[in-house]
Design brief:
four-stranded mixed β-sheet; 6 helices; 16% strand; alpha/beta; Collagenase (Catalytic Domain); 44% helix; nuclease
């Protein structure tokens, strides 16, 4: 009987990226923790040597409270990103490490996916990558920044086997 070779890749990957995942949502048929891990990893793996991200799935009422309290917008949104280093001076040991929190509201994501004619998986993948890019400092407030971020999202999604998430905007 052949013995399987041991590949250290997964062990090394886990040393580089830790996803602290919690599903506090009542929504059904959601992607797995492994899916969210894969999508966040795809976004950050080429730019960070180490990352520690907490991702929590929250129902609309709680997601709305976070959006209201931290962004001043009184509605539930699809994804919120809170980078640890936003506006802070960090010790040197964190300079090459990405740390932050993502909040995803499955009810909003599922509603948007249906409205946009996308699969739930595709939209969750896109928003996980989108939120991770926000943690990395990407933004879409200015038009040039938005174009750069969207181009990166398209490349990441296509590399993961998904279609262009902005395709409907191109008609």
């Amino acid at each position: 009987m052949k013995r399987a070779k041991k590949y250290p890749f997964l062990s090394l990957q886990r040393q580089r990226f830790c996803l602290n995942f919690e599903n506090a949502s009542t929504a059904a048929n959601l992607p797995s923790e492994r899916d969210f891990y894969r999508w966040a990893w795809a976004a950050l793996k080429n730019e960070y040597r180490r990352a520690d991200i907490s991702l929590i799935l929250l129902d609309e009422e709680e997601a709305r409270a976070y959006n209201r309290d931290y962004r001043g917008k009184d509605y539930a949104t699809n994804v919120l990103s809170f980078a640890l280093n936003e506006g802070e001076i960090l010790p040197d040991q964190f300079s090459d490490e990405l740390c932050g929190d993502l909040i995803i509201c499955p009810q909003v994501v599922l509603k948007e996916a249906a409205e946009q004619g996308k699969t739930a998986e595709q939209h969750f993948a896109h928003l996980t990558m989108h939120g991770t890019l926000h943690l990395m400092g990407y933004d879409h407030i200015e038009e040039t920044e938005a174009e750069e971020m969207e181009a990166l999202e398209i490349r990441l999604m296509q590399a993961a086997g998904y279609p262009n998430p902005y395709q409907e905007d191109e008609y």
